[in-house]
Amino acid sequence: MPAHTRLADELSALRAHYAVHMPADIAAAMKRADAALAASDLVGSALAAGEFAPDFALPGVDGVPMRLSRALADGPVILSFYRGGWCPYCNLELRAYQALAGRMADAGVRLIAISPELPDHTAATVRDGGLAFDVVSDVGSEVARAYGVAFDLADELRPLYTRLGHALPDRNGADWVLPVPATYVVAPSGEIVLASIDTDYRSRLEPADAIDAAAAAAPGWRRAA
């Protein structure tokens, strides 16, 4: 994705594509599940700006645990919860961040992308996307639960996901739990300064906005020229 392209435009184009090409029965089931999730209190009960981010240690693609508190010692951190490498909307978001890798480095901002997928699948996402930031595996969704962004996929969707090749227990080694798309910007103190949570998996915060918020939260961490 070119650095000048807005993620929202890419997501909108993909959404339009699936509106035409998604089988009608799957589209209808997803619409019902989307409405039920939107009507839940998930967004209201998730961690919000002004609260402190729970610490965690999750394995990266090299198997070495990535600890949030250790990353925060070096500067502000963006946490991006995504569904998995099988999700095309997630891949657009991850690649949009990769396109801004230089901007993050210059601002002294670190990105940690989190999904419930097994490390082998996470490694494939990193390889296929050419990602140079931290991507970690939250198997069992314990961290997503701690942040309040985890939910159980609707029963109606489970056989349809399997039909599409996305049987979550196979990819996640656990259950049918997913995170909603969520972006947290965390200051070095551990305080959440921006929280963007959306039950619509086709909507994401613009990476540039997250980077700007992180840089503003800790300007003293900017990389020296």
UniProtKB/TrEMBL annotation:
<keyword id="KW-1015">Disulfide bond</keyword>
<dbReference type="InterPro" id="IPR000866">
    <property type="entry name" value="AhpC/TSA"/>
</dbReference>
<dbReference type="InterPro" id="IPR050924">
    <property type="entry name" value="Peroxiredoxin_BCP/PrxQ"/>
</dbReference>
<dbReference type="InterPro" id="IPR036249">
    <property type="entry name" value="Thioredoxin-like_sf"/>
</dbReference>
<keyword id="KW-0049">Antioxidant</keyword>
<keyword id="KW-0560">Oxidoreductase</keyword>
<protein>
    <recommendedName>
        <fullName>thioredoxin-dependent peroxiredoxin</fullName>
        <ecNumber>1.11.1.24</ecNumber>
    </recommendedName>
</protein>
<comment type="function">
    <text>Thiol-specific peroxidase that catalyzes the reduction of hydrogen peroxide and organic hydroperoxides to water and alcohols, respectively. Plays a role in cell protection against oxidative stress by detoxifying peroxides and as sensor of hydrogen peroxide-mediated signaling events.</text>
</comment>
<dbReference type="Pfam" id="PF00578">
    <property type="entry name" value="AhpC-TSA"/>
</dbReference>
<comment type="similarity">
    <text>Belongs to the peroxiredoxin family. BCP/PrxQ subfamily.</text>
</comment>
<dbReference type="InterPro" id="IPR013766">
    <property type="entry name" value="Thioredoxin_domain"/>
</dbReference>
<keyword id="KW-0676">Redox-active center</keyword>
<keyword id="KW-0575">Peroxidase</keyword>
<feature type="domain" description="Thioredoxin">
    <location>
        <begin position="47"/>
        <end position="220"/>
    </location>
</feature>
